[in-house]
Write a structure and sequence with these properties.
InterPro entries: Thioredoxin-like_sf (IPR036249). The chain is an alpha/beta fold and 159 residues long. The protein has three helices and seven strands; from the N terminus they run E-E-H-E-E-E-H-E-E-H.
């Protein structure tokens, strides 16, 4: 099932680079950002979020012992899950067997979820596979939802 704004963020338990976590317990009532493919973002564009925001990166690559090694450019304060597909399936990110008979493989969804302190998904940001994304866009979107956290940099508004 696809997840949209207003849905409750699914809970799960996983081993991460910061140890074993239960997602909602780890969030502990804080804003959270779940990034499905952290390697898509330029290391130079990942600003330091204030400590009240928790970031969890799902990485489809496997490391030894099921824990993803620290990816160059991904901040060590981010928890990274080496996901073999279990967490992604809970979040509705990967296609299942119902798509096996398609003439071409479906494109894997690359998504960022912004999760409010009450555990609801406030918005999702989707992008095609590939690197060179600016994490500042995620921070600016998050700032729109968090009262009193206006973006320190001016940005263009839609016309």
């Amino acid at each position: 099932m696809a997840l949209f704004s207003g849905h409750r963020a699914p809970d799960f338990t996983a081993r991460t680079t910061l140890g074993r976590i239960c997602f909602h317990g780890w969030r502990d009532g804080a804003w959270a950002v779940l990034v499905t493919h952290p390697q898509d973002f330029r290391p130079s564009s990942i600003p330091e979020l204030d400590r009240s925001v928790k970031v969890l990166a799902l990485s489809p690559t496997t490391g030894h012992d099921g824990v993803h090694p620290i990816t160059p450019g991904v901040p060590s304060t981010w928890a990274t899950v080496c996901d073999a597909g279990d967490v992604a399936a809970i979040w509705g990110l990967y296609c299942g067997a119902e798509f096996d008979d398609l003439p071409t493989a479906p494109v894997e969804e690359h998504v960022v979820f912004l999760i409010a302190p009450d555990g609801t998904i406030r918005t999702t940001l989707s992008h095609p596979p590939g690197g060179n994304r600016d994490f500042g866009d995620v921070v600016r979107m998050l700032d729109l939802f968090r009262p009193g956290h206006a973006s320190p940099r001016p940005h263009m508004a839609a016309a």
